[in-house]
Each structure stands twice: as structure tokens, then as C-alpha cells.
Amino acid sequence: EWNEFLEWFYTIPLFIDEPDFRAVPACWDSGLIEKFKAHQGGACIDDDFLHASAAIESFAGQVMDTLLRGTDLRLPPGVKIAGRDGYVREFFRTKFWADNP
Predict the structure, then answer these.
(1) Are residues 93 and 51 in the same domain?
(2) Which residue in 29, 36, 46, 49 is deepest, having the highest Cβ count within 10 Å?
(3) Which residues span the domain enclosing 54?
(4) Are residues 63 and 34 part of one domain?
(5) Are strands 81-82 and 88-89 parallel, antiparallel or unpaired?
(6) Which domain of life does the UniProt lineage start with (predicted)?
(7) Distance from C-alpha of 90 to C-alpha of 88, rounded to nearest angstrom
């Protein structure tokens, strides 16, 4: 059952890039998307790419983080933000969807 799920999962594109329509779950990054298409030959991931994405600093990790979660900025040293959930963060999610964030 798990293998059937993975087979299906790997058919879902990370993004749609058509002449008159583009879509991505979070943040469109043209540079990452072009490199991804050159690397993967399309818009879908595979088992190797998924495993590689576990290393957030890797190319695969950057693609998955940016396209699926968006962008963030690290706060200055010593500055932290406590969220409503009580979790203390040293970065904040940027307003990547705005024209002038």
C-alpha cells in the first residue's frame, strides 16, 4: 500500500508552468524551478530527490522548502520571536506573495 502511495505521490507536480498559468504551493522561484526542471526533466520529484531533500542545505532541500513553504529571513543575532504557540523562533516567514514585501 505504501509503495502504491509513493508511485502516485511522485506523479504530483511541485509546480505548474504553462504559458498563461503558473502555480506553486507557496513561493515561485524562477531560478530554482529552472534548475529543478533541468535536474529532474520535469516538475515531479522521485525517490532520490525526496531523500536528498532531507538535507535542508542541499539543492533538493532548498527546492522543497522554498516551493512548499515559502521564504524566511533570519533575525539579527540575539533577537527572537515567540509565536502564539510558545515556540521561540530566530527567523520569520517573509511576505513572499506581496508585490512589495
Answers:
(1) no
(2) 36
(3) 2-70
(4) yes
(5) antiparallel
(6) Bacteria
(7) 7
